[in-house]
Design brief:
Layout lengths: L1 H4 L5 E11 L10 H13 L10 H9 L36 E3 L5 E4 L5 H9 L3 E2 L4 E2 L3 E2 L4 E7 L5 E5 L5 H7 L8 E8 L1 E2 L3 E8 L4 H14 L6 E10 L4 E10 L21 E2 L2 E3 L1 H8 L11 E11 L2 H18 L7 E9 L1 H9 L14
Antiparallel strand pairs: 1-16, 1-17, 2-3, 3-9, 4-10, 5-6, 7-8, 7-9, 11-13, 11-14, 11-15, 12-13, 12-17
Helix pairs in contact: 4-7
Bound molecules: 2-acetamido-2-deoxy-beta-D-glucopyranose (4 copies).
One 2-acetamido-2-deoxy-beta-D-glucopyranose binds next to helix 6.
């Protein structure tokens, strides 16, 4: 905890993403026990078990870029699988769990995990409501805005977890727990009234490298001063084409285009080569950017994420940026279709504050210990 108590301003998560062609490994190359599990599952549930050569499998992998050994409908058959597969959502398809229902007072929306964000925003658009789908300090992380999970345990038992019921420990753990604790079959999310916002992506060429990294650093250090504004700054590398580009997805929960916190992302400080920042509904924005034009994931490609948190530090950003771009360009130029990117994601103090205010922060980042 020494690391966090030395926290000066805010955290900066470095998200590295790599999209690459999918390996040809599925049921045929998995270890023996998995093969047996697949056969047992298939014999019990032939309609919903998909091996690579079958139509259902191809449909699933067309719409989801995950590595998948097989697919079946949860939660009914979970307990027939060996325990080590219970929580591996990569082998379970949730694509038919497509619930979308606004509560009677419109304060929450129930969302099945088979939905894409574009479905959720499109569903809410006519009511002028939105949910937190990402990383906006004003309301914390998306996981700070889940009020209830419906989930299936390894034993096959279905339960609901909230901040205050008998399963509050599970609720707390699910905030950062990924799929290690249960399979979530429904998320109840807090809604916000926000019919139109300023949102869009500015793109810069290689010449803007230094002012771009400076602007991202400043946002990490001072971005909490404007709670309504957020950025997702991504360095995109296409090694086969020898191209490095800089992008900033900017968001301001306001109908006025006056976020001073973005001053260094616009002229004269930096001149974008393309810019879609405009007043629009989040639904319209998400429909246009899913999948992101900068990182398309067509059939046959998959994505992999790695996250490393560190205290905001301009020198560290320089080191990560240079090491990553230089080694990707030098070592991966022979890989066609590969996109590698680094997102210097500022997580301001407000993110952490909101997490603590909304039923606790399992990451145990203690901003109040900052000097
Ligand atoms: C989803 O439902 C459809 C229609 O009932 C069915 O054909 C398909 O196999 C189901 N998909 C999965 C993954 O269970
Ligand atoms: C890649 O582009 C840079 C300029 O952006 C250039 O200096 C370098 O020589 C190029 N490398 C290759 C292998 O083409
Ligand atoms: C913009 O950049 C200048 C110079 O680096 C810096 O002093 C200022 O704080 C930055 N503004 C914001 C809002 O980050
Ligand atoms: C899906 C995709 O982007 N495929 C491309 C991979 O790279 C080859 C060679 O550059 C292209 O021809 C494909 O279109």
């Amino acid at each position: 905890m020494l690391f966090f108590s030395a926290l000066v301003a805010s955290l900066l998560s470095i998200l590295a993403t790599v999209s690459k062609p999918m390996d040809a490994v599925f049921v045929s190359s998995v270890p023996g026990s998995a093969k047996i599990a697949c056969s047992i599952t298939e014999s019990k549930n032939p309609q919903n078990t998909f091996f690579p050569s079958r139509a259902g499998y191809i449909d699933e992998t067309k719409s989801h870029n995950m590595l998948a050994n097989m697919r079946l409908r949860p939660p009914k058959f979970i307990s027939s699988l060996p325990r080590r597969y219970h929580h591996d959502s990569n082998i379970l398809s949730t694509s038919n769990l497509t619930t979308l229902a606004l509560s009677s007072d419109s304060s929450t929306v129930s969302v099945g995990p088979g939905n894409r964000w574009r479905d959720v925003y499109a569903y809410l658009q006519s009511s002028g409501l939105v949910v937190l789908g990402g990383r906006v300090g004003e309301h914390g992380f998306a996981s700070d805005n889940v009020v209830k999970y419906e989930c299936v345990l390894g034993s096959g038992i279905i339960m609901e977890a909230t901040a205050t019921n008998d399963h509050s420990d599970l609720f707390w753990a699910l905030k950062v727990g990924g799929n290690s604790f249960c399979l979530v079959t429904r998320f109840d999310l807090t809604t916000y009234r926000s019919p139109q916002v300023w949102v869009g992506i500015a793109q810069y060429d290689q010449s803007q490298r230094t002012p771009y990294l400076d602007a991202v650093y400043n946002f990490g250090a001072y971005g909490a001063l404007d709670l309504k504004a957020a950025i997702v700054p991504t360095v995109v590398i296409l090694p086969a084409q020898n191209v490095t580009a800089y992008a900033a997805a900017k968001f301001d929960d306001s109908e006025l285009n006056n976020a001073a916190v973005f001053e260094n992302f616009t002229a004269p400080q930096m001149v974008p080569v393309a810019n879609s920042y405009s007043l629009q509904s989040l639904g319209a924005y998400v429909a246009l950017t899913d999948p992101l034009p900068a990182c398309p994931t067509p059939f046959g490609l998959r994505q992999e994420f790695r996250v490393m948190p560190c205290v905001v530090n301009r020198q560290a950003m320089e080191l990560v940026h240079n090491t990553f771009t230089i080694s990707v360009l030098a070592k991966l130029s022979g890989v066609a279709n590969l996109t590698a990117s680094v997102t210097f994601q500022p997580a301001t103090k407000e993110f952490i504050r909101q997490g603590i205010a909304r039923s606790g922060n399992p990451q145990e980042v203690d901003i109040f210990k900052a000097p």
